[in-house]
Amino acid sequence: MVSLQSKEDYESLHPDAWGIPTPSAASISERDKCLSDAGIGLDGLLSGSTSNESLDMVIMPGMAFDKELARLGHGKGYYDFFLQKLHQQANVTHGQTKMHMPFLVGLALKEQLFNNEQKIPTDESDWPLDALIVGDGSVIRK
Question: How much is the pTM?
Fold first, then answer.
């Protein structure tokens, strides 16, 4: 994941072969990664961060969602791993400032939302969403 500085920065991204907005190859060296390859940088902080920076929101894709705000991803655990590393970083106090976890938002088509009695199977490594925005205009929050 890369850090975006503004709406204009986001709008400068170009779709890749799958339609995913992607930074140009020329701009990669100028961008901060949210996590280093090892997860936490050599200084104990998220790569490219200072002691009081943290993410505000993470938009999480999924294959299916339930009304308890659980999500079924694509099975690789990438977002769960990323969030675990963020959680570890948030629990490290830097001076007087403690970082916060980002607000977790899922985006779903109404067909991806399970009905009331159906539940997504989860385990301790899965992170629940804080909110789900559904394609029919509804929003589900904790």
Answer: 0.69
